[in-house]
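re: ur msg from earlier - yeah i can do the adenosine-5'-diphosphate complex, just paste it... oh wait u already did. ok heres what im feeding in:
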Amino acid sequence: MPDSTIKQQTFSFLKGGGEMGRLMRNKDWSESTVGTPDSWPQSLRTTLGIILNSKFPMFLWWGSELICFYNDAYRPSLGENGKHPFILGMPAKDAWPEIWDIIKPLIDQVLAGGEATWMEDQLIPIFRNGKIEDVYWTFSYSPVNNESGYVSGVLVTCTETTENVMIRHKLEESKNKLEFAIEAARLGTWEYNPANNKFISNDRLKEWFGLSHEAEIDLQHATDAIAEKDRQRVIELIQKALDPASGGQYDVEYTIIHPIIKKETIVHAKGKAWFNEENIAYRFNGTLEDVTEEVTARKKVEQSEEKFRSMVVNSPVAKAILRGQDHIIDVANKTILENLWRKTESEVVGKKIIDVFPELRYQKNLEFLDEVFTSGEPHTEKEFKLHLHDANGPTQFYVDFKYSPLREIDGNISGVMITANDVTAQVEARHIIEENEKRLNIVIEASGLGIWELDLKTNEVNYSDRYLEILGYKGKVSLTHEQLLRHLHPKDLHLREKAFKEALVSGVLHYETRIIWLDNSIHWLEGMGKVFYDDQNKPLRMIGTIRDITDEKNYQQELQQREQRFRLLANSMPQHIWTSDIEGNSTYVSDSLCNYTGLTSTDFKNDWSQIVHPDDQERNMSEWTKAVSAKQIFLAENRLRRYDGEYKWHLSRAVPQLDNNGSVQMWVGTSTDIHDIKQNEQLKDDFIKMASHELKTPVTTIRGYVQLLMEMYKNGNDPILANSLSSVDKHISKLTKLITDLLDVTKIETGSLHLAKENFKINKLIEEIIKDIQITTSTHWIIFKPDTDASVFADRDRISQVLINLLINAIKYSPQAKEVIIKTRLTKEEIVVSIQDFGIGIDVDDHEKIFERFYRVQGKNEKTYPGFGIGLFIVKEIISNHQGKIWVESEKGKGSIFYFGLPATGY
Ligand code: ADP
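and the outut:
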C-alpha cells in the first residue's frame, strides 16, 4: 500500500477536497508550526473537512502563526502566477504582505473574541497573475474555536465581487456621464407613470414649469404650464404616444409659460412610452430641450426669408428664385411669369428650370447658373439674346439679367436669384435705328451726296470726305468755312448768300451754284440744308448736303440745244410735225401746222380732230384707236382744214415711241400735204375708168370679128392667115383681161364689186380651171393634191378669177420650174387653198405690198415679167369681200406659196 493511501485513511478529514485536498494531503507539514496532520486538533480537522467540501470560497488562518488553508472554490481568486499553491501552510503575515495592514486589524478583532465581521465589496488588492490587482471582496471573518473554547483560527468566507463592483462602477460612471450630458445639454428629464398618473422630473424641468420641488405631481399640474395655444395638441400627442398602436414615440415642440414670472420657454420634448406584455403603457419618459433661442432664430430666418420672398414676388422687376444645384424654381414673380416665361406659376414652381425650358440646353444660361451656384460670384449679362418657347412657339428676347447667389446664415449657397429685364423693344428699336442709319449711309454714299454741318455761332464746319471730293479735293484736308466759300464762283456768290438768308427765316436751304476747283475747272453743285434752332428759337446750326450736278447741268444745256435744233428742223420742213402723249393730247406742233391751220399750239392741246374734215373723222378715229391698241404705226389720209376753211388732203403718220418695257411713251407724227397727188390719182383713176370703158366695146367687137374670121378660115389652106388670126385672138384675149381687170379695179374703188354667192365644191372648180390652164401651158405641170371635199359659199366666177390669177402668176414667176402644186385642206372653219411654185420668190419686205394696187416688185429680174400689178390687188379684194384671208409664204429665190382661205359650208 502506498504512503498516501495510508495518510488518506489516516486523515479522513482530508478526503476529497479536490486539488486543495490533494495538496494538503501531499504536503509535508513537518516543518509547519501546525505540525503534521496527525497532530492537528479535532477543531482544525472538522473545519478543514467543512472547507474542503464546501463549494463556497473559504480560507482559514489557524494557530498562532495564522497558517493559511483554502479550498478549490477559493483557488481562482489567487489567479495564475500568484500565491497558489505555495501559501498553503504559510503564516498569514508572509502570505499576504501586501494587505497585511488592512486585514491584520480585522483578524485581531476576531481573535480577540469579537463578533464575526462582514465586509461588502471591500477593495483588497492582491498579488496574482504576476501583478498586484485591485480585487473586491465581500467577506466574513468568523472565529473558529478550538476544543478548549478559545479562538484559534479565523475562517474567511468570501466571494470575489470585483466584476460586480466594476459593473456597478461603470454603471455609475455612465449615469454620471448621462447626468453630465443632461446637465450640459440643459435638458429637462421627465417620467410619467401612466398607472398612477404621476409625473416626476428633474429640477430644471420643474423650474421651467414653475413646479414645486415635490418628488411627484399629477400630470395635469405639469400640462397647466403649457401655453394655451399648444396645450391641447401636447395632451393629444401624449395620449397618442400612450396608445400602443403609435409605437410609443413622442416628439413635440411647444411653449411653456412660467405660472409666476410668465417667462416663455419653447421646448422640444422627446419621449418614449414603454408597454408591458398586455400592451399597457407602464412607463413614459423622455427629455425636454429648451429650444427658445433656436426657434426664435429660426423664426427670424423664416421671417426674413418670407420678407425676401415677398420682396421678390412683389417686385415690378422680373425675378425668380432657384434652389439647389438642379436649379429648382422656388419663386417666380408675376412679371417674370407673364412677360418673359409666358407660363403660369403652377407650370414652373417646384420644377427644374431645365425641365420647364428644355431649350436652355442649347443656350449659355445653365452654364451661368451652375457657375454662380458653385462660385458664389454673381453673373451679369447685357442684351442677352434668349430664345424661349411658349405655346405659340419660340420667341426671341433681348434681356439684361443678373444671376445672384443666395446664401444661408451659415454662408452656404442654397440657390440663385434671377433678376431680368426684357429689353427686346429697346434693342429692336435700336437695331432699326442702326439699320436705318446704315441704310441712310448707303443711300448717302450711293447718291454721291456730300454732307456738311455748320455751327452758326462759331462758323465751325464739319464735312464728309465726299463733300471735299465734290469740291475737287482728292484726299482729306482741313478747311475753314471761309476757305470753302472761296470755291464759289464769284458770279454765283449772291445766289448762295440769298439762299442762306432765306434759310434763316424759312428753315430750309436750297441753291445751285458754280464752283471753281483748284485746277480752275468749273463745276455745278446743288446745296440743300435744314436749320436747327435752340430753345430761344435762335438758329443754332445747319445740316445739309451738296450734290455734284455738273453732268446734269451739262446734259440740260445739251438737251436745250438739241430741242432748239429739233424745233428749227421741224419748223423748216414743209411737213407738219407733231407729238402727242399716250392719251393723244398734243404736246408739240410745228410752226408749219400752226401756219397752215391758223391755230396756236395751245389750240391743239386737247382737240386735234377739230381740223379733220367731218367726213374723215370717224375713219381717222378708228385708225387711231387701232394704232394705239396695237402700238403700231398710225397711217391715215385725211382732209385737214386750212386757216381759210379749205380742206386739203394730208397723209398723217404717227410712230409710237416705246420704252424698254414696250410701253408707249409718246407719238411722233407727221402730216404731209398729198392734195395734189390725190388729185392726180383721182384724174388717173377717172382716166383708167373712162379708157377701160371706152376700150371695152371696140375690143369686144374686134374679138367677135376675129373669132368669126377664125371660124371661117379654120379649114382654109392659108397657114399665114390662120396663125395671124390666132395671134390676134391671143393678144385680144390679153387685152380683154387687162380691160376686165381695170374695170374690176374701178369697181373695187367705187365699192361696186358685187358677189353672186352659191354653194359649190371647190375641188371641182379647181379641176376645171387646171384643165383650162394646162391646155395653154406646155412648160409647167399643174399638180392638184386635194385633202378635203368641202363646199364653199362663194361667187364661183370670182373665185375662178382668183385661182386663175394665182396659177398664172405661179407659172409666170417660175420660168425655170417644171411644176406648180395646188392643194386644198380643211382647218377648223375654213377651206384653205394653196398654190405653190418653185420660182423666183418674194422678199419678206414685199409680202404685204404685192397686194397693193399697181405694186410690182422692183428688181432686175422682175422687169422682164410683163404685168400691171393689179392681179393680186383684185384677188385680195375678192377674198376680203368673201370675209376670207389671203397671204403668202415666200423667200427670195426659193419659190412662193400663196394661200387663201374661205369659210367652209360643209362636205
Ligand atoms: P403683175 O401683173 O405684175 O403680175 P400682180 O398683182 O399679179 O401683178 O403681182 C404683183 C407683183 O407680185 C408682181 O409684179 C410680182 O413682182 C409679184 N408676184 C406675184 N406673184 C408672184 C409669184 N408667184 N412669184 C414671184 N413674184 C410674184
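cool cool. Residues 1-9 have pLDDT under 50 and may be disordered. ping me if u need the other ligands too
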